[in-house]
Amino acid sequence: MRTFVVAADAGQFQEAAYELSITQQAVSKRIAALEKYLDVRLFHRTARGAELTIDGRTFLPHARELLRVADRADASVRPGRRALRVDVVNRRVVMATLLQDFHLAHPDIALDIVTLEGDAEAAIAAVEAGMIDATFHAVPARQQLPAAISRARVVDEPHELLVGPRHRFADARAVTPMQLAGHRIWMPGLPTHGEVADYFAELTETFGFTIDRLGLVFSKEALLEEIADSSNLATLVGEGTRYLWPDRFDLRRIPVSRPSLIYPLSIIWRSDNPHPALGKLRDHLDSRRTVTPDHEIWLPTWA
Question: Which of 237, 239, 285 is nearest to 135 (CA)?
Fold first, then answer.
């Protein structure tokens, strides 16, 4: 098929042979085989070269489309040609923002952004199986990873308190974790196991406040509306988490400091992954990482 298209464009079998780095005899044999398969003549051989027949002209656009499909299929799986597949867990969170930043810095690199369900263990299994090139999770330093898997901490994300305009902390410039004791921190749908559950379990035990996991989860927008209308509801969100709400909600994002509550995220990848864009992504994330002095932050002990 490719030989047919090249010959049609060249108008000469000899020129097609030169372009394809094969002999003119090989071009003739390939065209003859295609004509036999289709049971039609595709070219008139003339003294000046080869001209398409009516059937050849009819077949040419379909042949071009077949080649385009074949090239796309090849590029979809071949490292270096296919898109870099990256799991960001959730399109609202900081990793989605950083991947967008990477895309703006490297628009020539094709990305396939996915959101896999499950915890770090499931995501690591997907990386090991080659389903994705990279994922982002909080991975305990003591956790044993498969031999083929590597990780590197790339983001230390602070938490913020999200409150409505009538909440006690609505006008605060910052709050401390100790000030959250006695306040209702509402996070319905918070996982009950996995690295997120482990993080918040140690966080609440350390600072003496509780998280209310109860309640139906209709949508993030519904949660934001309830917080906006309440004088006592609040929730914790990552500094890089993106939410949109109507101006009338007048929600406030209050930094939590002294110490800042840090959720440590690592990029996870296969050590033998040959995709050339993977190294560029890691370099990009390293260049944008900010490190806060240890005495100003709180990390879970497993980090």
Answer: 285
49 with 11: CB under 8 angstroms? Answer: yes
Report phi then psi at 170, rounded to 5. -60, -35
Cis, bond preceding 259 (omega within 30 deg of 0): yes
| 3-class secondary structure, 264 | strand
* 166: helix, strand or coil: coil
Query: Distance (Å, rounded) from C-alpha 289 to C-alpha 270?
Result: 21
**What is the chain's mean pLDDT, rounded?**
91
- With CA atoms as reference, report the closest residue to 239 among 300, 198, 297: 297
Query: For residue 137, what are its two tokens?
Result: 């999770």
Beta bridge partners of 211: 185
Q: Which of 68-77, 98-107, 208-217 has the lowest mean pLDDT?
A: 68-77
Judge contact between 133 and 84, C-beta under 8 A: yes
- Of 175, 172, 186, 188, the closest CA to residue 252 belongs to 172
- The backbone torsions φ and ψ at residue 40, rounded to the nearest 5 degrees and listed phi first, read -145, 160
Q: How many CA atoms lie within 13 A of 63 on its CB side?
A: 20
Residue type, 283: D
Measured CA to CA, the distance from residue 117 to residue 14 in angstroms comes to 55
Residue 221: count of CB within 10 angstroms of its CB = 12
| Digit-coded pLDDT (tens) for 61-92 | 999 999 888 877 876 677 666 889 999 998 89
Residues 243, 97, 212, CA angle at the centre, nearest 5°?
Answer: 40
The residues, ordered by sequence, that sit 6+ positions from 163 with a Cβ below 8 Å of its Cβ are: 169, 170, 227, 233, 234, 251, 252, 254
Residue with tokens 């656009």: 61
Contact 235, 227 (CB under 8 A): yes
Q: How confident is the model at residue 79, as a pLDDT? A: 62
pTM of this structure = 0.73
